[in-house]
Structures are given as C-alpha cells and as structure tokens.
Amino acid sequence: MKIGYKLFAEAYDPKEIVRQARQAERAGFDFVEISDHYHPWLYSHGHSGFVWSMLAAAAASTERIGLATGVTCPFIRYHPAIIAQAAATTAILSDHRFTLGVGSGERLNEHVTGAPWPSVTVRHAMLREALEIIRLLWSGGYHSYEGKHLVLDDARVFDLPSELPPIAVAASGDRAAEIAASLGDGLFATEADADVIAAYTGAGGTGPRYCEVPLAYAKDEATAAASAHRLMRFGLTGWKVQSELPNPINFEAATASITEDDMRRAFGCGPDPDRHAEVVRQFTDAGFDHLTLMNAGPDVDGFFDFYATELSGKLVDS
Q1: CATH number assigned to the domain comprising residue 181
Q2: pLDDT tens digits along 3-13
C-alpha cells in the first residue's frame, strides 16, 4: 500500500503548493497528487495555478516523492499531443517519479476555450482517442492520427524518458473502468466503491488503484468540520454534478444546503487518528492500494506532523 497527499491547488497559491510538496516528502508520504484545474470549485478557494509549472518546481525541489496529476483531461482545454509532451518532460525532470492521471474532465475547466461541452458518452470516446494519441507519440518518431473526434498531424515528442510514465485513468462507472483497464496502467477514483474496482479488474485491469480519502485535521472536531465545509463541501455533490456545472457560482448554489454535520459524516474530522483510520479503511476495504489523503483542515503543517507522528502507523497497521 502507498500513501499520498493531495496538493489542493484550488485552495493555495502555486508557491505554497510546491512548499507543501517538500513538506509531504519530509513527512514520509510516498507521493503527492496535484489537481489540474483552470477554475477553483468555490469562491472560498481563490486559486488555481498551472499544474505543469507546479510539477516542474516540485520535481526540482524534492528527491524521492512521487508526483501525479489528479487528474488531467487530455482533450478540449488541452490537445493530447500537448499532454504527451508535458508528461514526458515531467517524467524526465522528476527522474521517473511522475504518474499521469487522466479523466474525462469537468465543464468547470474545459468550457473556457469556448468549445461545446460534450455528453459523457462522447467524452469517453474522446478520452479513448486521446490515450491512443499519447501512446502513439510515446512510441517515438513522427505520427499522424485521425479519429472521430481528435486529429494529430505529423507530430513527434522529441524528449522521451527512458521509462514512460504510467497512466492512471479516472473512473466512476463501468465504461470508464474498462477504458482504464484497456488503455491505462492504473485506476483512479474518488469514492470507496468496490464495484468500480470490480469493473476494472473484470475488464483485465491489474495496475495500482488510486483513490482520494476525505479527511480534515484540526485540534477539535468543530474546527475541522467548519474547515471541511468551507473548502470541500462541493465533494458531496457527486460526480454527475461535479462534471457538469460551469463556474464557482454554480457550485456555491449547488452546495447551499450542505451542512457541517454532513461533512462530519463524510470526512474524518478532528484530532482523533482512529476516526481518520476508520475513514481510510473504507477505501482499503473496497480494494484501493494507493491512498491519497485529502486534508480539508485549516492547518496544513499540523496535518503533516499529525500524519508523521500519529496517523501513518495506524494506516500501515490497517
């Protein structure tokens, strides 16, 4: 089992995100995962730096910790040729510590170019084509590709790492899990859903299974729950809502009825390592083996100390 830390780029400025990557390495985490957003989810976040710049800076200022996107949509806002190049460069700069997490995207980030927001069926088809293009470019040499949705014209990625980065594909249902099994090297999910893992393994998937575990550390439960409500209440809306709304104002409206008690039920809130370990076990029991701890508490450095001194041992024991 590997334990990672979520670098929440929507809530902190880019320099702070890179600092947190260094602190996560010192605290003993195996990897960090950075969101790839154009917009934040809520007005209370106020940030959304460019993930590839932050990854490059994190790679230069850390030594052993793994780096991952969580996750990148490799079409619409980007073209997969750009992601193939960006991921290859990041793998080189990090000395092969990078994992490319990809998914079918959220309207929140992808509508900014003015392109139409496709149905989920079309997005899955576009994701397949994007992954085929990335794999093609990573094979070396010049390539062209003409799909139903995406085109590549006589392109080559010149700087390829000696070890290609693994690709973890986000899934919340059977169709995306099959894409993860057939075109990815691992699975990425945000809910403790054993059915998604069953769909992935049933389609032949054998790679690592990443998840995001909702925690909120503070010295008391009330402070933790208030912070989780301020920062992470959008997470309780579910993937169908998260993928479709276009701007923070829409998420403010969609989360108006979510309470701090709702956050307590969903998150490990407060200073009790047993409660945090209980939430983590929901994901390990479902079959996930790469756990990304997503701290929605107000004290980042306090959480790193809490993890190093109290929580990590309980997670190993679990």
Answers
A1: 3.20.20.30
A2: 999 999 999 99
